[in-house]
Amino acid sequence: MSRPQLNIKFDGEGEKELLEAVKARAQDERISLKEFVLDALKNSLTVHLATQPTQPKPAVTKPEVDELKRRIVDIQISLMGEVSKDRKQIAALAAAIALIESRFDVLDPPKIVTVEDSQARQSRQGETWENDAVEFLDAISWGDE
Q: What's the pLDDT tens digit per position in 50-72?
């Protein structure tokens, strides 16, 4: 039965110093030269495998790209329509707020009446507010156009 074997000749420039550094490092870590070299090889392979992508990148075809571009354009058009609707609603709300603010100037401040009971006062104020509310609702547009 044969055992796997790895023979390395250190006869190149700087390789003798490398071998001495490896031997010293193995002694520092208190392991054999063989164990140190095997650990270094395993670490090198692990690092190499970890840096390789695990899955190949999928190829994207031109029809797929064209379809994605078309969908993006459709979504942009849809969003522009929504923004336009929102702007119309904001304009209607701004007009309604302006109308309400203009009504503040028309409203009379409450008058202090010393001989008026609370039920009569509530009835009088209710009529005023009800009339103003009806006029206001008739005057604004709710965006049903």
A: 666 666 667 888 898 999 999 99
Residue 95 near residue 140, CB atoms below 8 Å: yes
- Counting other chains too, the contacts that 8-15 makes at CB distance below 8 Å and 24 or more residues apart are none
Q: pLDDT, tens digit, for every residue of 109-135?
A: 555 555 555 666 555 555 565 666 666
Q: What is the helix, strand, coil percentage profile of the chain, to 5?
A: 70, 0, 30
The model carries a pTM of 0.33
Residue 142: partners with Cβ closer than 8 Å, 6 or more residues away: 92
- Tell me how far the alpha carbon of residue 78 is from its chain's centroid: 20
CA 110 to each of CA 39, 107, 128: distance values in angstroms, whole numbers, following the listed order: 93, 9, 11
* Residue 110 contacts residue 74 (beta carbons within 8 Å): no
Distance CA 10, CA 37 (A): 14
Residue 17 is given by DSSP the state H
